[in-house]
TrEMBL record:
Keywords: NADP, Oxidoreductase. The keyword NADP applies. The active site is at 56 (proton donor). InterPro entries: AKR, AKR5G, Aldo/ket_reductase_CS, NAD(P)_OxRdtase_dom_sf, NADP_OxRdtase_dom. One of its GO terms (molecular function) is oxidoreductase activity, acting on the CH-OH group of donors, NAD or NADP as acceptor. This is Aldo/keto reductase. The record marks 81 as: Lowers pKa of active site Tyr. Belongs to the aldo/keto reductase family. Pfam families: Aldo_ket_red (PF00248). Coiled coil: none annotated.
Length: 278
């Protein structure tokens, strides 16, 4: 694995595309000034990876934030996702066009299936493969796919997904899934890396923060990166966006990496990919 060096460092996807390993998530950031400013603040501070989704209803603001920043579009790794109600072949192609229009761009850097929908997702994937072959998106992947979802998709897929974005934090490591993805060349990515704020309650995190003289968020985000996992903490507050990215002047010792791995309880704070109703 490449060393974790700086905010614009990347992991290489299996098609050779460089994906910045640290980014800004904008889930729950309101469209309009809130998300525009968050994106602008992140990019102007040095972030180069922005993750949104059709269902977040803020793609328009994300696009504006990019245009109003000091950073050129081609220097931003921009991600969006197709929502469940748009899954299927033709409807995915339409949904992609609609996302591009809202974002004000003519391509995406990564497009993901947001949740696994069985047979329907195979049709969705066929559409996404078409977009990829047409060079309208630089990389393609999935989100919330467990091993059996991936295995099922791979029975008909021409192209192996380049990324799998999962709920990932010390209470939900799913190391078997991480290893499965690594074996298939699928880059693992964390959503909800801070356990929806619950990470701040853990005494062990307070101990580690004191030991390294870093914040709890910085400790857990550094753990993600050292595990080779792309991470996209969300915040709309400028000072937190800046603090979250201050990860490159320290390294977690191996025993502390193992300590965090050992907190795994298989506990989710978000929906279960095997049991959701949307």
């Amino acid at each position: 694995m490449k060393p974790i060096t700086d905010l614009q460092g990347t992991f290489e996807l299996h098609n050779g595309v460089q994906m910045p390993y640290f980014g800004l998530g904008v889930y729950l950031s309101k469209d309009g000034s809130e998300v525009i400013n968050a994106v602008k603040d992140a990019l102007n501070h040095g972030y180069r990876h922005i993750d949104t989704a059709a269902v977040y209803n803020n793609e328009e603001g994300v696009g504006k934030g990019i245009r109003e920043s000091n950073v050129a579009r081609e220097d931003v790794f921009l991600v969006s996702k197709v929502w469940n109600t748009d899954q299927g072949y033709e409807s995915t192609l339409k949904a992609f066009d609609a996302s591009l229009e809202r974002l004000g761009t003519d391509y995406l850097d990564l497009y993901l299936i947001h949740w696994p929908k069985g047979e329907l997702s195979k049709e969705t994937w066929r559409a996404i493969e078409k977009l990829y072959k047409e060079k309208r998106v630089r990389a393609i992947g999935v989100s919330n796919f467990l091993q059996h979802h991936l295995e099922d998709l791979l029975t008909t897929a021409e192209i192996v997904p380049m990324v799998n974005q999962m709920e990932f934090h010390p209470y939900l490591v799913q190391q078997d899934l991480v290893d499965f993805c690594a074996a298939k060349g699928i880059q693992y990515e964390a959503w909800s890396p801070l356990m929806q704020g619950n990470i701040f309650e853990l005494d062990i995190m307070k101990v580690l923060a004191a030991k390294y003289n870093k914040t709890i968020a910085q400790i857990v985000l550094r753990w993600d990166l050292q595990k080779g996992v792309v991470t996209i903490p969300k915040s709309s507050k400028k000072e937190r966006i800046i603090a979250n990215s201050d990860l490159f002047d320290f390294e977690l010792f191996q025993e502390d990496m193992q300590l965090l791995d050992g907190l795994d309880k298989g506990k989710r704070f978000g929906p279960d990919p095997d049991n959701f109703n949307f």
